[in-house]
């Protein structure tokens, strides 16, 4: 453990100790493993449904000559590929930290979710737009039996996608989250895909019925374009969320405020100069703080206070796998001097650079 007192240039060094596993830690780990298991089953159910539906839609679309049905087939193929990405994310993101990745592999989930968003955009949205514009420009001929076959396929797809969506919604509720606030990118992607699939099947069915009644392929072309627009929107939302988390999204602002209040409430702390948080996974985060201690403490007292404060933060925020404290001694800071290099020195000696690794 290394605690630095920048103003006086004193350093306190001690052997780094690993905190023994606690019941709470074991419970959190078991809960995370159970959550991953439920999510894996949800993804596998969605994958099985999408593979069967993709084949049925493709065969039905070719047989009926339906651009809307072919667009839905492309949508299901994209969803199937995305489920493979999500399964890879679930497996790879739980690898333990190593020398090359000391903060772990939690962000792998965000990376694979970003790839899933790209897959939805390219394989689903772009192909649907192409099919829609082709139908509007060239038209298409369908027989009555083709219409019926297509509508039957869409009905089966609606039921299968609905079952998968219901399971994903139930899992979100089981985890105590609303559908719009799901944190796990894998589960969030399944919810978005299945919800979009149910709407897309509805658009395709309406387009086919209107085509059958009016004889104009314009309706199916418009349905395909609507499906494409829906997929592009969902891809944008999923990609935007993954981007924010990959580049370093802060923890919940309310929680950050509670940590700041906890630090300010410590009698040994004069002020909290800076507090930074960053998500390093769906259930892990980094906390870094720069604090000024009250004057009059020696090196051993500073070390004891820092360890106690970090344990308090870890108790409040169990997901904080890494906690860094940059401790400064107000007696030696010389805050009122006009040193032009002060800002540059502060930037170089950031909390992450001089703090201690470890939860508590």
Automatic annotation (TrEMBL):
Coiled-coil spans in chain: none
Gene Ontology annotations for the cellular component aspect, listed alphabetically: membrane
Protein name (database record): Cation transporter
Taxonomic classification: Bacteria, Bacillati, Actinomycetota, Actinomycetes, Kitasatosporales
Domain Cation efflux protein transmembrane span(s) in chain numbering: 43-246
Membrane topology: Multi-pass membrane protein
A Gene Ontology biological process term: zinc ion transport
Region (Disordered): 1-34, 329-360
Keyword Endoplasmic reticulum on entry: no
Keywords associated with the record: Membrane, Transmembrane, Transmembrane helix, Transport
GO terms, molecular function: monoatomic cation transmembrane transporter activity
Segments passing through the bilayer: 110-132, 144-169, 190-211, 217-236
Compositional bias annotation for Polar residues: 10-22
Composition skew (Basic and acidic residues), residue ranges: 329-348
Classification via InterPro entries: Cation_efflux (IPR002524), Cation_efflux_CTD_sf (IPR036837), Cation_efflux_TM (IPR058533), Cation_efflux_TMD_sf (IPR027469), SLC30A9 (IPR040177)
Pfam short name (any one): Cation_efflux
Compartments, record wording: Membrane
